[in-house]
Amino acid sequence: MSEVPIPFRLAAVTEVADEPSPAAPDPPDQRAQAHPRIRAEGLVRRFGWNATAAQALEPGYSYFFPDDEACVAYVDTGKAWVAAGAPLADDLHLAAAARAFVAAAGAAGRRACFFATEQRFVDVAALRSLLIGEQGVWNPFDWDAIVAQSRNLREQLRRARAKGVIVREYDPAAGPSAATADAPAPSRAAVEAVIERWKRMQELAPMGFLARVDPLSLGSGGELFVALSGSSVVGVLAVVPVHGRDGWLFQTLLRAPEAPNGTAEALVDTAMRAARAQGRTYVTLGLAPLAGDVRGPLRLARSAGATLYNFEGLRAFKAKLRPERWDPVYLSFPPSTGSARAILDALGAFAHGRLVTFGLRTLARGPTVLVKLLAGLLVPWTILLACSSTARWFPNAIIKWAWVAFDVALAVGLRTLWRRWSRHLAWGLTLAIGADATLTAIEAVWWNEPRTHGVAAHMVLAAAVCGPLGACLLLGGLTMRRESVALRRTTPSSAAGLPGKE
């Protein structure tokens, strides 16, 4: 633990330390004062009204304590302190805690912002607030009526039951002894395998901050629900408490690719009934980012980013469950910061503080948007090829127009692959582009190099050689990643730590 004084003598910034040793001899009250996470947990239980409050206890957060009655959980991106939701404080201390946090960040040479704030905070904080999405809210005591009124929801639940999907609460520490007659208990390795496979399938590189996915590391009060189809794990739902509203946040909901239709709805249905059994009156599935009446630039980002993140699909799934209302969610920041800078700071928190590195890691995963990008780049290149001088760049006109025809066919093939993935077409295009790279290199060395003069001409020649080589590597990497996911999807369940199916 380390404490960094600031010039106000009213607060200290306390970094996250290692978990306290179970054998520590200090009394609980002294340990709570000494360890920042224990202090923060006490304030989460007292003032955790924000839907994201319990997530502040996950690994990776630092804690700012203006006094003993308030706390702000945040991540330091190197340029900004980005808070996870509103301060943990009662209504009377919210504004003061926010002011102290912004001042402390400034004293440390950082900007400050609060991501995923709600109307309770926006109404009292002297900050600008930008709508970044909505979160649906349910009362579990109304769930039976919602199911009765939704034909689509009833049908999805029926499909899950017809396929033998069973949802049960899961304790990672309980092991196989927790098995029942109707559902054998999966091993922890089986649940981990589904989670890890889901992560590998995502187009984006793993994110941090409030988008961290680690259902098996739930804190105090969190619960896990697992969907089983036969002896295979096909879905996971992790929930964390929202203490200030006597409710739950459905934090992580994921399903295996082979999960029967209705698996996600069955997980939600079981968790809603469990919440009602515990007397809880508030449930949210969390933020639907960029949903609702967001500003023009954010609407543009929603459209442009749809190939990497299914904003509309996520909102539509939550809407299908018929929430009681949609609560607005904001990014709050000092007026001096500016909305564009605040958005970049928040994105930096999700990208572990390194947006460029995050982008490169995403590209390395071979997102399918690369197929569309390759097809798009081929259009101006083919036009340039068709308009170029035959005598200068090609041995004869037949070779020139053969290359043009080849590139047109390649662009059509990539567009077809983008619209509907086919492993045979993907491998065929990869081999064709590889042949393109090889023949282009041979032609460049044999014909073009002796006749090429000047820096600009050599740059064009380098682009002609490196372009298809890079495209071959990108498309090949994407195809292999999808093949790897497909292979894991068809691996027998015994490989994931479960008894194999007959």
Query: How many separate structural domains?
Result: 3
CATH homologous superfamily of the largest domain, by name? Gcn5-related N-acetyltransferase (GNAT)
User: What is the rounded distance between the termini?
Assistant: 53 Å
Low-confidence spans: pLDDT under 50, at least 5 residues?
1-15, 17-33, 487-502
Structural class: alpha+beta
DSSP strand (E) fraction?
15-25%
Task: Write the element-wise H/E pattern from the N-terminal end onward.
Answer: EEHHEEEHEHEHHEHEEEHEHHEHHHHHHH
What this model shows, in words?
The structure is a single chain. This protein is α+β, with helices and mostly antiparallel strands and 502 residues long. It folds into 3 domains: 3-126, no CATH class; 136-326, 3-Layer(aba) Sandwich (Aminopeptidase); 369-489. 46% of the residues lie in helices and 18% in strands. It contains 17 helices and 13 strands. It has helices at residues 28-34, 36-47, 94-107, 119-122, 143-149, 151-162, 188-201, 263-277, 296-304, 311-320, 339-350, 355-364, 369-387, 390-393, 397-419, 423-448, 455-489; strands spanning 3-5, 12-14, 62-67, 70-76, 80-84, 111-117, 128-138, 165-170, 223-229, 232-242, 247-255, 282-289, 325-333. The protein has a 13-stranded mixed β-sheet, sandwiched between helices. Helix 3 links the parallel strand 5 and strand 6 (111-117). The two termini are 53 Å apart. 36% of the residues are buried.
Summarize the structure in short.
With 502 residues, the protein is an alpha+beta fold.
